[in-house]
Known about the structure:
Blueprint: E1 6-16, E2 19-30, E3 34-38, H1 45-53, E4 60-65, E5 68-69, H2 75-78, E6 81-83, H3 95-105, H4 110-123, H5 139-152, E7 158-161, H6 169-185, E8 190-194, H7 197-203, E9 206-211, E10 214-219, H8 221-226, H9 231-236, E11 241-244, E12 246-249, E13 255-259, E14 266-269, E15 281-284, E16 290-305, E17 310-316, E18 321-326, E19 335-339, E20 346-348
Parallel strand pairs: 3-8, 3-9, 6-7, 7-8
Antiparallel strand pairs: 1-2, 1-4, 4-5, 9-10, 11-15, 12-13, 13-14, 15-20, 16-17, 16-19, 17-18
Helix pairs in contact: 3-4, 3-5, 4-5
The structure holds adenosine-5'-triphosphate.
Amino acid sequence: xxxxxxxxxxxxxxxxxxxxxxxxxxxxxxxxxxxxxxxxxxxxxxxxxxxxxxxxxxxxxxxxxxxxxxxxxxxxxxxxxxxxxxxxxxxxxxxxxxxxxxxxxxxxxxxxxxxxxxxxxxxxxxxxxxxxxxxxxxxxxxxxxxxxxxxxxxxxxxxxxxxxxxxxxxxxxxxxxxxxxxxxxxxxxxxxxxxxxxxxxxxxxxxxxxxxxxxxxxxxxxxxxxxxxxxxxxxxxxxxxxxxxxxxxxxxxxxxxxxxxxxxxxxxxxxxxxxxxxxxxxxxxxxxxxxxxxxxxxxxxxxxxxxxxxxxxxxxxxxxxxxxxxxxxxxxxxxxxxxxxxxxxxxxxxxxxxxxx
Length: 357
Ligand SMILES: Nc1ncnc2c1ncn2[C@@H]1O[C@H](COP(=O)(O)OP(=O)(O)OP(=O)(O)O)[C@@H](O)[C@H]1O
């Protein structure tokens, strides 16, 4: 494996005609890291990955592997392992031949190919399926073959584009575990594209949240989860309760953040916007909402049972909906009070926009 210390994407722009699919995209990846590119459909995640693999040519900027400029190299000279959503296996080749393919292309000696294929297939627990064709395997097994094929070439970098999207929920979880285990066991450096917050949080050393071809925030999962930089990132991190707000300072220097107006408005005391940042929206997560003897009055509008807990839709006096996760059982129509600890509420300068916009 070609050893490297650092991969750097420096001010990458990629245009499709006048459309800017990537804008000033800069990212440094250290050897051994697991990085996720997270964002909704169309935000440019696959485009970024394809610039790395060489399937797309950057419009400007450079990609450096230590001191080597690689954006000028064709894909085969970069030698990265790729795993795609649709597996992309050769249907007429056996499992063994699929995994051997990249090594044969590289003219690795036959005996070594046999060894490496065997090792790669054992790593993904498919040693007993080597003579099958892809069509004779389940989706999860096919994706395991694709992973074995990617790692068999011992690439400096493995690129994965939504590899779990076509699998059912149970297999997704299993293979997620497997990918994390392989990453550590084989000492890989992995860049992983997903639109799934849970996948990104559970797999990554660092998450890069993207929107419209630009990086919104990057950092460790815990950092993004507790301190999202803006409302967009917050929503990706599960802050389902998001509202327009105005923060007022009342006579004795105390602050009140108000959501809605009139007598039914929600009011949160003691929230202070960051200096100079202002506050136009606020957000908190369903698990930040607590039932309380006193607090904001609301009616239970809907209850969903989720195994360990209930997901409850609360409706306040002015009709605002608040989602609460709770271990306490509540009944539809019940009148309750709730509170949100002030340290769990995030204030943002961004104007509130409804989720679908
Ligand atoms: N060959 C192309 N020509 C023109 N526009 C393109 C091309 N490929 C991608 N785009 C556009 O670039 C934007 C980013 O696409 P990209 O595939 O990177 O998004 P993504 O975040 O990976 O989304 P998804 O999860 O749906 O794959 C989209 O608006 C897409 O329509």
